[in-house]
Design a protein that fits this description.
The chain is an alpha/beta fold and 425 residues long. It is built from 15 helices and 11 strands. The protein binds 2-acetamido-2-deoxy-beta-D-glucopyranose (3 copies).
C-alpha cells in the first residue's frame, strides 16, 4: 500500500466511523417497512419510500409470499417466496431455487432492481419456484421466542448459527411445503460461506441441495485488498471499541441511515463522489457498471442489520487465513469443541456440485482467494464473470447484470437438472 492509499483509507475509515455514529444517533429503531399499497396512497411523506419484500415484488405484478419458521434455538424468521410470474403462474412441482443473502443484507436485495434485472424475477420468469432466506438479526428476523431483540444474548451468533440453525430450518420447511426432494442453492458473499458451513457441518444437506452456485465466495481471506486490508489492520481496535460500547448489533436498517445514504449518494448530491469513492474502496473499482440510481434505491434496503459476532468471526478467519469455527477463547473452546483451537470446517464433506463465480475486480472476494478455495473443494469449478472489473457490488446491482451474470446462473441451474457432472454445468 502506498502512502496516499493509506491516507485515503484512513480518511474513509474516519468518515465510516462518523457514519456509524450518525446512524446510531439518528434513529436507532429499525425501520418500519411498508407495503406498497400503503405507500402509493402517500401516507407520511417524510419517510423514505421503503417497501417490504412483498411490496417490492407485487408492485411489478408478480406474486409474493411471506413464510415463518422458528429455529430449534428459538429464533423466529420471516422469509420469502416468489412462486411464479405473470407468464408462469404458481403451480405444483416447480423446481425450487433458494437464494441466500450476504452480510448485513436481506431478501430485499434481490428484488430492488425489478424484472429482467434481479435474479429472483428472472428465475420466476423461467418457471422456478423462488425462495429467499433471511438470517437471524436482519430486518425480517429480529424476534425470538424468549430473548428480547435488544438483549446481548439475542445477538450471540455468527454466520455459523445462520447456516446450521436458520438456513437448515428454512430449507427443511421449503422441502416439506413444496414436496420437492432438493433445492438449488444460490448465494452472494456471506451467503456462500453459510452454504459451505451448512454442507460441511450437516452433511445430510448434500442430499437436500442439488447444486450450489456461489457468487463472490467468501471462504478465507488470505489476500485481503483495500478495505479488507484496512479492516484487518484495525480489526482489533474496532473489536475493542465495539466491546467497550457494548455494541452487539451493527447497522440495522434505519430511517436515519437510509436518509444519510440517500443524501450522500444520490445524483446531484455534492457528496456523491465520497459515496462512490467509499463504495469503490470497499467493493472494487468499476465505474462502467455502477448504477447510481439503483444504488440510491438499494441503500434504503442495505444495510439491514447483523451481529458484531459475525464481523468478529470473519475477522478471526482473516487473521488465521482459514475457514474455521468461532474462537470463543481457550476455556470456552475447550468446552465447545473439546480443544483449545477452533476446528476448521471440513470442506471435504461437501460433495454436491459447486460452481464458484468470481469477479476480477472484486476486492472483497478476490480472484486469488477464490482460486485458493477451489483447491480444497472436491466437486467444484471456478469461473469469472466475463467483464474486466466486475466488483463485489456488481454481483447485486451491475448495470448489465442480466447479460453478464444472471443468464449464466440460469444456464447452470437448467443444466444441473440434466446432469450432476460438474464439468458439464
Ligand atoms: C479496470 O481494471 C484495470 C486493472 O485493474 C484498470 O487498469 C482499469 O482502469 C479498469 N477500467 C475501468 C474502466 O475501470
Ligand atoms: C432520496 O431523497 C430524495 C430527495 O430528498 C427523494 O426525493 C427520494 O425519494 C429519495 N430516494 C429514496 C430512494 O429514498
Ligand atoms: C473430513 O471429512 C472426511 C469425509 O467427508 C473425513 O474422511 C475426514 O477425516 C474429515 N477430516 C477431519 C479433519 O475431520
Amino acid at each position: 500500500m502506498g502512502a496516499t492509499k493509506v491516507i485515503v483509507g484512513l480518511v474513509l475509515f474516519i468518515l465510516f466511523s462518523c457514519f456509524v455514529s450518525a446512524v446510531y444517533s439518528f434513529d436507532f429503531e429499525p425501520i418500519a417497512v411498508k407495503r406498497y399499497q400503503k405507500v402509493s396512497r402517500g401516507f407520511d411523506t417524510k419517510e423514505l419510500p421503503v417497501l417490504d419484500f412483498v411490496g417490492l415484488v407485487k408492485r411489478h405484478g408478480y406474486p409474493a409470499e411471506e413464510h415463518k419458521v422458528t429455529t430449534p434455538d428459538g429464533y423466529r424468521l420471516r422469509f420469502h417466496r416468489i412462486p411464479g410470474s405473470p407468464s408462469k403462474p404458481k403451480a405444483r412441482g416447480k423446481p425450487v431455487v433458494y437464494i441466500q443473502h450476504g452480510i448485513l443484507a436481506s431478501s430485499d436485495m434481490f428484488v430492488v432492481a425489478g424484472p429482467n434485472k434481479d435474479l429472483a424475477f428472472i428465475l420466476a420468469d423461467a418457471g422456478y419456484d423462488v425462495w429467499l432466506g433471511n438470517g437471524r438479526g436482519n430486518t425480517y428476523s429480529r424476534s425470538h421466542v424468549r430473548l428480547p431483540s435488544d438483549s446481548p444474548e439475542f445477538w450471540r451468533f455468527s454466520f455459523h448459527e445462520i447456516a446450521v440453525y436458520d438456513v437448515s430450518s428454512m430449507i427443511n420447511y421449503i422441502l416439506r411445503k413444496t414436496n420437492q426432494r432438493t433445492v438449488v442453492y444460490v448465494a452472494h458473499s456471506m451467503g456462500t460461506t453459510i452454504g459451505m458451513v451448512l454442507l460441511s457441518t450437516l452433511p445430510e444437506f448434500n442430499e437436500k441441495i442439488s447444486v450450489v452456485i456461489n457468487m463472490a465466495t467468501i471462504g478465507n481471506w488470505k489476500n485481503p485488498r483495500n478495505f479488507m486490508k484496512l479492516l484487518r489492520a484495525f480489526g482489533l481496535y474496532i473489536q475493542v471499541t465495539l466491546a467497550a460500547a457494548r455494541i452487539v448489533e451493527v447497522f440495522p436498517q434505519t430511517l436515519g441511515g437510509g436518509q444519510i445514504l440517500n443524501g450522500t449518494c444520490r445524483d446531484g448530491s455534492l457528496f456523491q463522489r465520497f459515496c462512490t469513492a467509499a463504495i469503490q474502496f470497499v467493493s472494487g473499482y468499476d465505474p462502467d457498471q455502477l448504477d447510481t440510481d439503483l444504488l440510491v434505491n438499494g441503500l434504503a434496503y442495505f444495510p439491514a442489520g447483523g451481529s458484531t459476532q459475525t464481523l468478529t468471526h470473519f475477522y478471526q478467519n482473516m487473521i488465521s487465513g482459514r475457514l474455521q469455527m468461532y474462537d470463543h477463547g481457550l476455556v470456552k473452546n475447550l468446552f465447545s469443541y473439546g480443544r483449545i483451537v477452533p476446528p476448521l470446517y471440513n470442506l471435504t464433506n461437501i460433495n454436491v456440485p459447486l460452481v464458484l463465480i468470481y469477479g476480477k475486480g472484486d476486492t472483497v472476494a478476490t480472484t486469488e482467494d477464490s482460486l485458493d478455495l477451489i483447491r480444497n473443494l472436491r466437486n467444484a469449478k471456478a469461473e469469472s464473470v466475463p467483464h474486466r472489473n466486475f466488483t463485489h457490488l456488481d454481483f447485486i446491482w451491475a448495470k448489465d447484470i442480466k447479460h453478464l451474470l444472471h443468464d449464466r446462473v440460469l444456464e447452470i441451474i437448467q443444466r444441473s437438472q440434466l446432469t450432476t457432472r460438474i464439468e458439464n454445468l
